[in-house]
């Protein structure tokens, strides 16, 4: 089975930084990985994705230049470094495994349980 577990969420002040991590059980090295986020009353939205090797990345316009996605295939982990957090960023963040190797388009088919990110001001 494929199991994804997010960690690193929490409370951070506006303008601050937070690093999320996703640990996986199951094969990841041949698949793209990504992050989505969701707030109550809205659909889950794409945040970022990284291709199978880590060399290719895709970002939503709303986070481009502020968030950085990376992966470590040897450790079977993926991280999301979030800088300059804004009031629009609070949400439950989910990591996901894609159906293929490309980061664009990123089509998720396995999900973690999510981790809460809260921004205070």
Write a structural description.
This protein is mostly beta strands. Helices cover 0% and strands 51% of the residues. The chain contains no helices and eleven strands. It has strands at 3-7, 10-13, 18-25, 33-38, 45-50, 57-59, 67-72, 77-82, 91-98, 108-111, 115-120. The strands form two sheets. Strands 2, 4, 5, 6, 9, 10 and 11 form a seven-stranded mixed β-sheet that branches. A hairpin with a 4-residue loop joins strand 7 (67-72) and strand 8 (77-82). The chain starts with a strand and ends with a strand.
Throw out a few tags for this protein.
single chain; 121 residues; mainly beta; 7-stranded mixed β-sheet; 4-stranded antiparallel β-sheet; globular
Approximate shape: globular
Give the averaged pLDDT, no decimals. 95
Task: Specify the helix fraction band.
Answer: under 10%
Report the radius of gyration as a whole number of Å. 13 Å
Q: Helix count, per DSSP?
A: 0
Provide the structure class.
Answer: mainly beta
Low-confidence stretches: none
Query: What is the string of SSEs from the N terminus onward?
Result: EEEEEEEEEEE
| Sheet with most strands | 7 strands, mixed
DSSP strand count = 11
Distance between the termini: 40 Å
SS strand fraction = over 45%
């Amino acid at each position: 089975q494929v199991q994804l577990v997010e960690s690193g969420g929490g409370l951070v002040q506006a303008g601050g930084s937070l690093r999320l991590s996703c640990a996986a059980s199951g094969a990841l090295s041949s698949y793209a990985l990504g992050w989505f986020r969701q707030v109550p009353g809205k659909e889950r939205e794409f945040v970022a994705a990284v291709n199978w090797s880590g060399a290719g990345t895709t970002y939503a316009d709303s986070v481009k230049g502020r968030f950085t996605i990376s992966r470590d295939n040897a450790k079977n982990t993926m991280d999301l470094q979030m800088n300059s957090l804004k009031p629009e960023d609070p949400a439950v963040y989910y990591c996901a495994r894609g159906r293929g190797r490309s980061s664009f388009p990123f089509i998720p088919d396995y999900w973690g349980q999510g981790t809460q990110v809260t921004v205070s001001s």
